[in-house]
Amino acid sequence: MFARLTGLIFAATLALAGPARAELGDDGLHIAPWLNQTFMDLREDLGDANAQGKRLAVIIEQRGCIYCSRMHEEVWVEPDILRLLEEEFFFIRINMHGSTEVTDFDGETMEEREIARRWRNLFTPTILFFPEDVPEDVTGIEAAAVVMPGAFGRWTTFNMLNWVLEKGYEGEEDFQRYHARMFADQAAAGAME
Predict the structure, then answer these.
(1) Verdict on whether the full-model pTM lies above 0.85
(2) Which pLDDT value is given to residue 21?
(3) Cα separation of 174 and 169, whole Å?
(4) How far is CA 148 from CA 5, 39, 58, 78, 117, in A?
(5) 102: Cα within 13 Å, side-chain hemisphere
(6) Residues 157, 81: contact at Cβ < 8 Å?
(7) C-alpha span between 142 and 67 (Å, rounded)
(8) What is the mean pLDDT of residues 37-50?
(9) Cis-peptide, bond into residue 33, ω within 30° of zero
């Protein structure tokens, strides 16, 4: 009887606790299975992404970012999104205030915090999606095919990932129209943002 009561109390406590908190590393940034550890040379990372048949994406985050936490705990863990992140993209992360050296596409090497400023990044999380080919003399912000600043809900994120994979940025339908069209179908199937 006591064991059963204890089990019920434990289950009720878990139910009231809400979504699980994402694990943080020693640097205060979230740990995610889809983030790659590299030597932070973007041209090499692009080559690795292309060799794996994936799209290179760079996410900029910072310690204590409540929007980063929301994305890690509620959005990027959705099975359909997680599958895309792991199977279709090659993600690396830049710490907005970090000191690890990063080599930009133009060959300039600087600390993470300097490259975040160079790319005029103000908010976290920000994701930069890159094309398969990047000219030699451009910076990351100049090379980015798409920049996704901020936290978004499940379906906006899911549709953005798919729009990038479909190279929608090269077509006539901008993301807002694509998302509206896709979400109409998703909502008809019961989706809620």
Answers:
(1) yes
(2) 67
(3) 7
(4) 48, 24, 10, 18, 16
(5) 26
(6) yes
(7) 25
(8) 98
(9) no
